[in-house]
Design goal:
The complex is a heterodimer of chains A (about 250) and B (about 210). Chain A has helices at about 1-15, 25-45, 55-75, 95-120, 130-155, 160-175, 190-195, 200-210, 220-245. Chain A has about 250 residues and is mainly alpha-helical. In chain A, about 40% of the residues are buried. Chain B has helices at about 40-50, 80-90, 95-105, 120-135, 150-165, 180-185, 200-210, and strands at about 1-10, 15-20, 30-35, 55-60, 65-70, 140-145, 170-175, 185-190, 195-200. Classes of the chains: A mainly alpha (about 250), B alpha/beta (about 210). The interface between A and B is medium-sized, with 24 and 23 residues.
């Protein structure tokens, strides 16, 4: 824990520096993203279908994307720049990953919460119907993102193909991830295919929590949890494998 | 170290750097290690430090063991000298504030301690690296070519810190400076073709080194 804390501080300082607003970028950057997307969607009045308020729809959707998508982006290739720290026996690869994941999750979470509270307080968004369900959905998406990130981060040490493939994959997954639609809007024949993607379930849970009876959510907690669990186990196995082979620089 | 083997994957297959190496280091013992460039001295030091894992065999540590102290110093260039000190202190669970004065004093960096390390000269880096190394206390120090660099004044001060103030500590010293090893160590090892040869007499060790390596 001590080591992860030290790495966190170091990560914050190297990424954001001490100049201007420093570590506030951690959540201001994702906030700007979400803000931009929210504005775009509001102006386009995109065919998100029904009576769902567009601002809340965009905030819940895009925040979720940032949460699961940014974590792998930060862990892929994370070992290389930190190799010199591996000279210290108590700095392990898993600590480097953990520090980056915590930071990423904290940034996305703060951005989501701050934006929500802001919009709710000025009346652009209604408060969530079931805050616990929102948190549960958020947690599931974070679990999915973290386990995927740990797996891809470890695999990226064995082959740079992972890095090359992740970028197009992440890009293509965005429109399919449930951020810009709800499963219920889709034709029934497509629904079962889109529900193969685990993060779709997370976004559905989150939105059901937020909008309550306004939406008809489709999800399977057991399915998503199983996928996350399998990813987590694979990720730790890979992480063990690469930490045996690490050569400090 | 018990039956330690270390192999690396290269493009021409597996290379065995250390082949069934055994070594015991007792409290307060000072061991000098000789060997040609690329013979596996630094690999051995890294294995002892625990930064790298052996392919097979086991390494047991009953003393607190330092990281391999070397002048290159694993610094983050965008961070200040002080940030780097804080980081090292945090991961070893040492209160950094109590060490700032010592590091400031030894490194003679003045206000540069608060500037990014990338602005330092190589001499300044070396002084900072050594000072930070000495800020955390260990029972056994791993010293990889640490005495080779720097001007004579710095050289002398390093010698004093290590071999006078810390003379009761165990040390493993890798150096090409035979004179230094002769003065400081009581046991000697030569790493040659993956094997470790141990001697109690520097002259015999040195002759072996000259004849075989």
């Amino acid at each position: 824990m001590r080591v992860i804390g030290a790495l966190l501080m170091r990560e914050v300082l190297t990424r954001y520096g001490r100049h201007n607003i420093g570590f506030l970028w951690l959540f201001i950057e994702p906030m700007l993203f979400t803000l931009g997307v929210t504005m775009l969607w509001t102006f386009m009045k995109s065919n998100h279908g029904s009576s769902i308020p567009i601002v809340a729809f965009a905030v819940t959707g895009y925040s979720s994307v940032l949460l699961w998508r940014n974590m792998p982006a930060r862990t892929i290739g994370a070992v290389e720049p930190n190799l010199s720290l591996m000279y210290h026996r108590n700095v392990k690869i898993i600590d480097v990953f953990a520090a980056r994941l915590l930071l990423e999750a904290a940034g996305a979470t703060t951005s989501f919460f701050v934006l929500s509270i802001l919009w709710i307080s000025i009346g652009w968004m209604q408060p969530p119907q079931d805050i616990l369900k929102v948190l549960f959905g958020w947690f599931m998406i974070a679990w999915f993102g973290a386990s995927l990130a740990l797996l891809l981060g470890s695999l990226s040490e064995r082959s740079e193909v992972v890095d090359k493939i992740w970028h197009p994959t992440a890009y293509l997954l965005f429109p399919l991830s449930g951020a810009a639609f709800m499963v219920d809007f889709l034709p029934q024949s497509v629904q079962k295919y889109i529900l193969v993607l685990p993060m779709v379930h997370g976004v559905e849970i989150l939105r059901e929590g937020y909008f309550g009876s306004l939406v008809h959510a489709h999800y399977d907690i057991l399915y998503m949890a199983t996928v996350c669990l399998v990813l987590t186990i694979l990720a730790f196995a890979q992480e063990r494998h690469i930490s045996k082979k690490v050569i400090p620089e | 170290m018990r039956n330690v083997v270390k192999q690396y994957q290269t493009r021409h297959g597996e290379v065995t750097v250390l082949d069934h190496v055994n070594l015991i280091i007792r409290h307060g013992e000072k061991i000098g290690i000789l060997g040609r460039n690329g013979s596996g001295k630094s690999t051995m030091i890294r294995l002892i430090s625990g930064g790298e894992q052996p392919t097979s065999g086991s390494i047991e540590r009953s003393m607190s063991v330092s990281w391999p102290l070397a002048f290159s110093g694993a610094f983050q260039g965008t961070l200040t000298g002080l940030d780097n000190l804080r980081f090292i202190c945090r991961i070893y669970g040492v209160n950094a504030n109590s060490r700032i004065e010592y590091v400031q004093d030894f490194s003679e960096l003045g206000k540069y301690l608060y500037e990014p390390v990338k602005t330092y000269s190589s001499g300044m880096r070396a002084r900072l690296a050594f000072a930070i190394s000495m800020a955390v206390d260990f029972d056994c120090f791993l010293i990889d070519e640490i005495i080779a660099v720097g001007d004579s004044r710095f050289h002398e001060r390093c010698q004093r810190e290590l071999f006078e103030k810390r003379k009761e500590k165990a040390m493993i010293i890798v150096s090409h400076d035979i004179q230094n090893i002769r003065e400081q160590c009581e046991r000697f090892c030569v790493v040659h073709e993956g094997k470790l040869f141990q001697f109690f007499n520097i002259d015999i060790a040195y002759n072996f080194y000259k004849d075989n390596c």
